[in-house]
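so i finally got all the pieces together for this one. its two components total, 535 residues if u count the protein bits. some of the lines might not be protein, just check the labels. i wanna see the whole assembly predicted at once instead of chain by chain like last time, that was a mess tbh
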Amino acid sequence: MAHLFADVANARTQEELSSAYGMLLAEESAALLNVLGPSYVGDIAAGASNVIRVTDYDSAASNGYASRTEVQAISPTDPAPAKTEVTVARYGFARQPSDLVKMTDSHGVLNPVLLAQDMLIGANQKLVELIAGLMPNFSATAGSAAAAASVDDFFDACSELRQANANGQLIAMLHAKQWGDLSKELATTSGGAIQFAPATQDALISRGSGFQGTLNGVQIYTSNRVTADAGGYRGGIFTTDAIAWADGTPVVEAPESQVLIGKVLFEIDRKPLTAQTDYVGNVWLGVAERQDGAGITFLSSTT
Amino acid sequence: MTRVKLNTDTAPATYQAAKGRRVAQVLAAEEAREQLPRVSPCSDFLLQVHPMRWDVAGKRIVPVPGRFSLVPGVDGVDEDRRGRVVVSSAIANRRDRGWTVIPAEWYEDEDGVGYVQAIPVKGGVAHVTIWDSLYPGSTKVRCDLEGMADWFDKLIAEKKIPAPSVAALEDLVDKLERELSKFLNLQRRDSKYSALAEASAERLEVARTALANHNDSMRPVKRGKRVRKTAE
């Protein structure tokens, strides 16, 4: 959709454009890709396919060594591989401000640098949204859609994951309402409050504004992209092995109008006939559930 | 809502009139936007159920459905050359993991086929089930659990989705027993938990009754071979 002067004229009258932009950016929190936790399984660039197949083998430890006599032959065991396919697809985003909109932009928000930055943040949030969309789909559940999220349910979920041998850092992806309910309970129970370490300024910078802190060692992220079904929010707690994600690096063919920012291909396309400029961002992403046992759906009521 | 004041001293009359009309239009659009539900936009999906995920809702045992996103790039969903969503391999993958993805055609009423509705919300479109209701300017999502449970009962009766097994019901009873004991403990400390304890007790009763009425008893696996304890 074109971004025309008529659309923002009333805002310009009151010089409210900067506050409007601030509100839009803050509507969804971000968690940075490199620290959120799901396992990164690769880039499809030059891979001849948009699908990355990951095979997880069981280890020798899970098959176990069998007891044998001095010269008794060992029967070889077959590994039991589990495969995950991550399909990478395109996500695009564009702005099309007119020259009039840009020349009257007294706050300087419609410049290529800020638009590119916006598109990078947007790509980040898209990945968070895709990951949040997988939370309802672990076969194990904790909590209930009939009650608010509770610290008890949270610890039950963690304990169930540990019983399933889900090793490594636990990460919780919760709806803001779920986190609100948990925080309320934490504030009124001293045990919970002691186990909670709020996010520091440094952690927010490195992990994104969606990072809330750690509760009993579990990193908590919130996203309002966590969905609600059958009267309940469906957040999740998982380890790195639960979710796989992949991406693609686009080819830069026209460096004068294209730039690669991380994995986002940012392009500027001038439309002189209509005095408009297209600012376009494209990113290629894919996510998939990898090991079901390494994650648990965390249910709580929406009311 | 943004309020706009025109500077009537400096703007020419014709400009003011034109601007007034435009401002009115923009304000009307803004007002309409403010009236939209404030639920986050989310993509189209199909429901999926798993044999071990059950809960008590509306005094009945109902599956806890998951969401199978119809978005290319999520859980093996792809798109073809014409941009149509391709789900066959992704659905097969979910089936391998024990899930039953419920096709849209399994629900039909006077309004059409399918159980997912698209509702405009602030910032886009939210896809929710037809049993969900969203409210203007609110983040609330209310679900008609009875209606949804009726439909799930019908699917179970038609053997389209699995009924709860004894093992799943026993897990549910265990979980609800833990929940009740938690609320009973909290109730001793604070009377505000009485209602929750009462509701939890009712839910536990529903689950226990379902377990007691289950036609199948929990069957052990086939007997194994006897093992030799000592060397000959």
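Chain A has ten helices and 16 strands.
The first strand of chain A starts at residue 39 and ends at 43.
anyway lmk what u think
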